[in-house]
Model the fold of this input.
Amino acid sequence: MLVLLDSASLYFRAFFGVPDSVRAPDGTPVNAVRGFTDMIAYIVGLSRPTRLVACLDLDWRPAFRVQALPGYKAHRLAPDGKLEIVPDALEVQIPIILDVLRGFGIACAGAEGYEADDVIGALCAREAADPVEVVSGDRDLFQVVRDEPTPVRVRYAGRGLAKATLYGPTELAQRYGLPVQRAGAAYVDLSVLRGDPSDGLPGVAGVGEKTAATVVSRFDSFDELLAAVGEPGDTRLAPSIRHKLAGASDYLAVAPGVVRVAVDAPVKISGDDALAPSPADPDALDALAERWGIGSAIQRLTTALAERAAG
Done:
């Protein structure tokens, strides 16, 4: 199995989920480092992957999405209008997290000008050998679920990993009332109509999640749905819904390209994604453990790797 980690989603959750009293000997906060490392140990123990990649945001607000929808994630901009608002206490921990990943020899992947969602989507699209499990607290990634040619599942950690739900096409269809045969693609269509305030996606005014799911389920594609908006005789759309969709035509023309992951993103991986039974650089990890006071978390992941390898 290949596990793909939505790294930023997980270390943000670790930062807010682990008390900020967890600090290094010099007082530097390391709650996100410890929490993120423990998350990996948990996943290794639970899913027993043979391959693992930590997927990174190299551009959290890609230009192609902003060009299509200027409001995309605009509410997250710092006062300078360029950078994402990241708590100082978390920002200082990100380099440490990357050092820990390097010490364990865990592959990292990114694509210039793209988000981690795109990296994950691209890696899923090209995986033809192993089942894939995506670990994220972001519902946008539900769109990658599939059964063929290799199964892709999303372990959604919106309420924490201990309460995470594993979604495939069947579970996604049941949860949102979508057609199982195209559950991932239908979730994109639902998201476009419903909107997502956390991403600055306005949706169609007056169309909530249940209505969106009902509408989406009547069509085989989003293009077919859009074509029906201009056909008053198409009874799959009630007049009131047709009117709402027609009023949002400009938005509907660009939103799918914003919501869909870019499966052609030029992903680069730092190294072999095979999950080794032991750390690649134990001396570096020992130094990190001593400097940052994260020895217990490093040991838990080391143990999880050894136990996975032992079967």
In short: The mean pLDDT is 94. The chain has 14 helices and seven strands. The first helix runs from residue 7 to 17.
